[in-house]
Amino acid sequence: MSLPKRIIKETERLVADPAPGITATPHDDNLRYFDVTIQGPDGSPFQNGVFRLELFLPEEYPMAPPKVRFLTKIYHPNIDKLGRICLDILKDKWSPALQIRTVLLSIQALLSAPNPDDPLATDVAKHYKENEKDAQRVSREWTEKYASA
Amino acid sequence: MKVKIKKWHAIAQWRWDTGHNDPDDDGEGDVCGICRVPFEGCCPTCKMPGEDCPLIWGECTHVFHMHCLLQWIGTASSKQQCPMDRRPWVTAERKVDANNPR
C-alpha cells in the first residue's frame, strides 16, 4: 500500500515546523515508524530530560490511533515498565481529527500533569498519592539517570 | 468600430459551498478534518473530485468528505460521534451561511 497523502503532509510539517520540545523522524525503510523525542516540561520532575519514544501508524490510521511507547525509562503513574502510556486519546477518545503532532503534545502535557487516579503503573501511582514530594524526587532521579541528553 | 469575435474560450472554476467561506481564513483553505485534503480534492479512496465524492454536513456545522466521515462512523471506536466535537453525528441538510446568501 502506498502512503496516504495525509501521512506525507503530517511528516513534512513535523520535520519543517516541529512543535517546541518535540522531534519526530520517520524511518527511511518504514515511513509509518517514527523515532520521537520529547523534552521534559519545565517545572515538572522531568525537566532537563530528553525522552525517546517510538510511534507507529497502523494501516487503519487515521481511523485508528497511532501506537506510541516510551523507550526511555520513566517514573510516571500513567506510564508502565514497558513504556506503555495510559492516555484517553490513544484509546477510546481517539478521533481522526487528531494528528501525530497533537498526540505528542498531549503526551508532553501528561508529563506536566500526572494523573494518579487513572494509573497504569499502580506502584508509582500509589507512591504519588501517598507522598507526592518523595515520588517526584524519584521521578527526578530517574530523569537524571536515564533521560539526560 | 465593429468588433467581430472569431473565437473564444470559456473557463470555469467550481468549489463546494461549505458555508464556511471565511475571507480571513488562515490561507490553508478548507480541508477535510479527517484526510486533510482540500474539499475541492477528493477523499483518499476516490480518483476524481466532484459529485462522485461529495461533502457531508453535520447538524454541529462540521463538514467532511462524505466517504471519510462514513468510514469513521462505520468504525466501532467512533461511537457515531463527530470527529471535531464528539457530539453524536446527525447528518444535516446542506447548510448555507445565512449571512452570505447566494
UniProtKB/TrEMBL annotation, chain A:
The keyword ATP-binding applies. The active site is at C86 (glycyl thioester intermediate). It comes from the Eukaryota. Residues 2-148 form the UBC core domain. InterPro entries: UBC, UBQ-conjugating_AS, UBQ-conjugating_enzyme/RWD. Belongs to the ubiquitin-conjugating enzyme family. This is E2 ubiquitin-conjugating enzyme. It comes from Dichomitus squalens (strain LYAD-421) (Western red white-rot fungus).
TrEMBL record, chain B:
The keyword Cell cycle applies. GO terms for molecular function: cullin family protein binding; ubiquitin protein ligase activity; zinc ion binding. One of its GO terms (biological process) is cell division. It holds the Pfam family zf-ANAPC11. CDD domains: RING-H2_APC11. Keywords: Cell cycle, Cell division, Metal-binding, Mitosis, Ubl conjugation pathway, Zinc, Zinc-finger. This is Anaphase-promoting complex subunit 11. GO terms for cellular component: anaphase-promoting complex. Residues 43-86 form the RING-type domain.
